[in-house]
Design brief:
Blueprint lengths: L3 H4 L4 E2 L3 E3 L5 E3 L7 E2 L10 E4 L2 E4 L4 E2 L1 E6 L13 E6 L13 H4 L9 E2 L2 H10 L4 E4 L8 H13 L3 E6 L5 H8 L4 E5 L5 H8 L4 H13 L3 E8 L7 H15 L5 E5 L14 H13 L5 E4 L4 H4 L1 E2 L6 E6 L2 E5 L30 E3 L5
């Protein structure tokens, strides 16, 4: 049994770094390549230099736990209607001016990390609460990769799956280790120009595209993509056409794409919310480019939340927000009308968890 004393070891050696000739240590987790003197932290704030090694300072610590519907991640083709045990830590390796979870991802205060739990305890609580999966979310799991990977291993030992909600900004070696342990991922494709990425996130587009291609073509991890459309920033028809064409050509028509609505937050409070008409336009563009499953999010739109058969066009899974009103897939995940298989991971029926969000405390024994 895990003891409480074991949960307090929150500083752990980090993977993926090397020493430089000038005495600094370089973090090799993501393309930021932070180069640190003694006592310094990377841009993510949670990976730091202590003595002659790099450490992860938030291992076993969380900003909170919740049971969510899987559709909230959003994942529409990964066991619809199931419950997912969600948690994050603090910090982020991007600097998005529009961050919708900035109080967590931009936190520089460790007292934001209210809960402590070992990977084994997280897996135990998830199983006890009939959660099909555990999601690393709220902030980017890339920066706490070692903790997420250990938790995924513990979950798999109990028959619970692992989900990453991420911006996909990482180097090749950690990417391979990380996604070998993930069963599903939703990757935020923030926009589709280098200018947008550099100006609004402080990062670059190319590594994210590399992550998307790697996940889809070289792993068994189920992939869905989300793009938050920001008025005047990344919502032009030309950019949406380029994005959806790239997805169709480089990933294929069956990767689900979610266009979601921005609300004013963090350093972009002067930008208005995304009109629902923008999301509907983006969805129409994606479908015209040949994508089979394009969704709208953060708005009330039954059609934009419905999964349609790519073969005959029949509605197969109808959603109202996160509630499933109709589920007609057969036990093999195929359309009962024409037999066309729907890409994804499906059970013989939707699990019907609904739209509830239940905060949890994970006390160590």
């Amino acid at each position: 049994m895990t003891t409480r004393s074991e949960s307090l070891q929150t500083v752990r050696p980090a993977s993926w770094w090397h020493p430089l000739d000038d005495g600094r240590l370089q973090c090799d987790l993501c393309p930021r390549d932070c180069k640190l003197h003694e006592g310094q932290r990377g841009l993510c704030f949670v990976r730091a230099r202590q003595g002659d090694e790099m450490v992860l300072t938030t291992y076993g610590r969380s900003s909170g736990f919740c049971i969510d519907p899987i559709e909230k991640k959003p994942l529409n083709h990964f066991y619809p209607g199931s419950r997912v045990f969600s948690f994050g830590t603090a910090g982020c390796n991007l600097a998005c001016k529009f961050c919708q979870n900035w109080d967590i991802s931009k936190s520089r205060e460790m007292d934001r990390l209210m809960d402590q739990a070992t990977p084994e305890r997280i897996a135990e609580v998830a199983a006890e609460n009939a959660c099909r999966s555990v999601a690393f979310t709220y902030n980017d799991p890339v920066i706490f990769a070692e903790y997420a990977m250990d938790t995924a291993d513990a979950c798999h030992a109990r028959g619970v799956q692992a989900v990453a909600v991420t911006a996909g900004y990482m180097h090749d070696a950690p990417r391979r280790a990380f996604y070998a342990r993930m069963d599903a991922a939703n990757v935020d494709l923030k926009g589709f120009t280098e200018a947008f990425y550099f100006q609004h996130t402080g990062a670059h587009l190319a590594p994210v595209l590399e992550t998307l291609e790697y996940i889809h073509h070289e792993t068994a991890c189920w992939l869905e993509i989300t793009t938050l459309l920001i008025p005047g920033a990344n919502d032009s028809s030309a950019e949406i056409e380029a994005l959806t064409r790239w997805v169709a050509e480089r990933l294929g028509p069956d990767v689900p794409l979610h266009f979601t609505a921005f609300h004013p937050d963090y350093r972009m409070t002067d930008v208005p919310p995304t009109p629902p008409s923008t999301l509907r336009r983006a969805r129409e563009i994606g479908l015209a480019q040949g994508l089979h499953h394009v969704y709208t999010g953060n708005v009330h739109d039954r059609e934009g939340g419905t999964t349609f058969c790519a073969g005959c066009g029949e509605a197969l899974i109808r959603r109202d927000w996160h509630d499933i009103e109709l589920y007609t897939l057969d036990a093999q995940g195929a359309c009962p009308h024409c037999g066309t298989a729907v890409a994804g991971r499906f059970g013989s029926a939707a699990e019907g968890y609904g739209r509830r969000r239940i905060p949890m405390r994970v006390a160590m024994p």
